[in-house]
Amino acid sequence: MTQVTAGMIKELREKSGAGMLDCKKALEETNGDMNAAVDWLRAKGLSKAAKKSGRTTAEGLVVISADKGDKRAVVVEVNSETDFVGRNEQFQNFVKDIAKIAATEEHDLQSLLAADFSGKSVQENLTELIATIGENMAIRRLAVLEVEQGIVATYMHNAIVPGLGKIGVLVALESAAPADKLNELGKKLAMHIAAAKPEFLDINSVDASALDRERAVLTEQAREQGKAEEIIGKMVEGRIRKFYEEVVLLEQVFVMDGETKISKVVEAASKEAGSPITLKGFARFALGEGVEKEETDFAAEVAKAANG
Question: I need a surface site. Which of 3, 47, 181, 244 has the fewest CB within 10 A?
Answer without folding.
Answer: 3
